[in-house]
Automatic annotation (TrEMBL):
Protein name: Guanylate cyclase domain-containing protein
Superkingdom classification of source: Bacteria
Coiled-coil residue spans: none
Name of one Pfam family that matches: HTH_77
Domain Guanylate cyclase: 13-124
Amino acid sequence: MPARPDLPSGLVTFLFTDIEGSTRLAQLLGADYRPVLAEHRRILRHAFGAEGGVELFTEGDSLFVVFADASAALRACAEAQRALAAHDWKPLRPKVRMGLHSGYAEPHGGEYASPEVHRAARVAAAAHGNQVLCSSATARLVAGSDLGLIDLGLYQLRGFDGQERLLQLTAPGLELDFPRPRTQAATPHNLPTPSSTFVGRAQEQAELRGLLRGHRLVNLVGTGGAGKTRLALELAKEMVPAFADGVWFVDLATVGDAHLVPVAVAEAVGVRPEPGRPVLDTLAEYAATRSIMLVLDTCEAHLPAVGAVATRLLAAGTGVQVLATSREPLAVPGELVWRIPPLGTAGAEGTPDAVALLLERAAAARGGRLARTDELTHLHRVAQRLDGLPLALELAAARLRLLSAGQLADRLDDMLATLDAVALPGAVDDVAGVGDTPGVRANRHATLRATFDWSYRTLPGPAAALLRQLAVFASPMDLGTVEWIAGPEALPLLTILVDKSLMVTDPQAASGLPTYRLLDPIRAFALRELAGDGQEAAARDKHLGWVQHALGRVRTGSDGRPRTLSTYPFDALAAEARAALHWCVQEGRCRDGLRVAVALGEWWRERGLAREGRIWLYRLFERSVTAGEEIPDGELAVAYHGYARYAGLDGQPGEQLRLLVQAEEFAWRTGKASLIARASASRGEALVALGREDEAERACRDVLDWARARHADAEALPATFTLAHLLWRRGALAEAATELGQARGAANADPTERANRTIDLMLGLVALSRSDLVAAHDHLVVALRSRMTHGFHGGVCEALSAMAVRCALGGELATAAKLFGAAQGARAQLRTSTDMLGRFGLRHEGAVRTAMGDAAFDAAYGEGAAMTLAEATTVALAVDHPDLLHQLDRLAAVDLEATAELPVARRLAS
């Protein structure tokens, strides 16, 4: 072999050989070892020289040879092993191991100073006697030749950080079976080990396992701190056995330049870049025959570059699968976008995931001390306020080192100030919460502000402005709402916010149409940005305008005309209305606030929220005086009238009467008959509550006469109802029925149809007092169905009580007891004691108890009290319509003797 010609440069292949167990062999052979060593060198030099190998040095039993051609190097090794095997060794054959690695190197002073030389030496050290190993770099250079190579997998070479793929040369005359290489087998993954336990997400994991079976590119998308990385790591850990060539985690947040994304992927997988060739080409060639999963984390850091890499590798081979995490979709073919939900904050059974995370992390923050039982309610409040966002929960748990759970929950109105006071060192987006990778990721997830700012800074100006504007909304929005706010650009801007995971889409909204919302921690961030931008007042006023628009739509149809009023839409608008009222009380216009409060009047009354309505009106009146804001008399009349009604429902009839007098004064200043009639028509109701029934009757008759003379009958209907109620109570049934019959005309003129239902209820009471069950049933069913259909829950309670009396008179005692219980249970939930039936209802309830016996009555009553209003209404409407003759037969057949002389049926009828 040439002594030292010009050494090859550029892409060269290094070969190291030595004798396995040479020291022991020398001890065994003694003086005979030297000729064995010399003969072994002769054979090797001949084989290597024949293929152009250049020997750099010989040391003991080791040779170091360099080749310009990788194929020639492998052929030389095969020939050398065959020659060694064919030689007649006496007394023992030396077992020679060989290792090759290829890379770029330049000779200096007759030698190579390159890490590629050391890598070749480590490959040789991994071989067994008679075995030839090479690196993947050498294997790629001989691809397509007739040389046979067996892939042994990835191994950790001593002194090198990454993993090296080792391959064994196969050729005729060479041994095939060897133990695994002499180095630690590389773990078939590089998944980081989190320092904290994984909490919850069992349902999400099950769903994702199924998706990964059917899709090769699954992207876990969600806002910062949502726990995407940690969930991906949990899934990837389970998938390791399914991928023969490993599961490899790539942290793209640490990649400073988009051009380095393929390099980062290659480093994670263990593929070494080839000079003069794009890394992505090398990766694709490597992936073509592999079974690997790539976990590409934080893809939003370099979205287009990551999309290109993922697309290329998925196209290279069917054994490649990609599990990505990102704040927005990659937008590449074949991508399945799976949006990670917040941790659950409520559940019928067990501890919700968000609360479980808080409990686990709080215990760690407190040195292992578990939360006290009395803290659980507050921890549930914290989890709900933080919308189950894992990073926010982690920060909250850290705060529990200093605060009790109750103190923390009470301070979340200023969420960022409370939570960001405790930064999580080394925090990342990898938890059911967070984890411990330093660097850029740590800064990005140390605080809520930093987490959301990462995404916020990438928004176009109009999208950022829309995010700030929508932050003033307290509840989910539909597309129509966003369009009302943003105009024609609403859809593209909303798409940006949803894609960047700054807004959450709920496709399963009750309306059947998707809704959009900001998680509370993101809302807190956006509100702070809004305040800093100096546009909060304008945003709040615009929101207030939308609230007034939405409340107006509840009362009008698509043609703009009034329609039958339902209180159910107010349920969905309540949070927004309260936010608007809060703004009006603080800095907005009181006049607008009064309009909102008045529009909510029926809803507050029918949901048992009269006291809340009073509080809002009081605060608005107070601020209007302080601010010196002028409110027109007509609007004050309407507002004071509503204020008075709330006082009455709140059990303060004296206050109700005082406020009604003020409302009438404002109404008279306007000179509008309809407004005067409306303000005056409720005086009788207050007087009745004060026990001044004669005065109440005169007041009702006076206002009715005055209103009818001025064609304001519809506005005076409350006076008709109070008068009819008084007449019914004292047994003037005919006159009560006459008054109610006359009211039909005025009620029919009201397109909202509200008054007709009250007329039906009261006519039903008149019929009950007459023991006319057929007429009573007809009227009460109409009243009950309409009130439940349109959400007048306070009125439903009265109708249920009346239906209970109807069932009692019909001999259906168990049903009567249930309905009495249901009515009372609903009143308790609505926090109202108002009952139109009064002593009439109590008398019949007592008679049913007497007839059934305490035990049976209490059981049925309790069953009814446990029902929802909807369930109780279903029971009431299922009562058979009475046929008069059959009804009389039933009454005659029922033996209902009470302690009094008259049968119960006759007593009830009286």
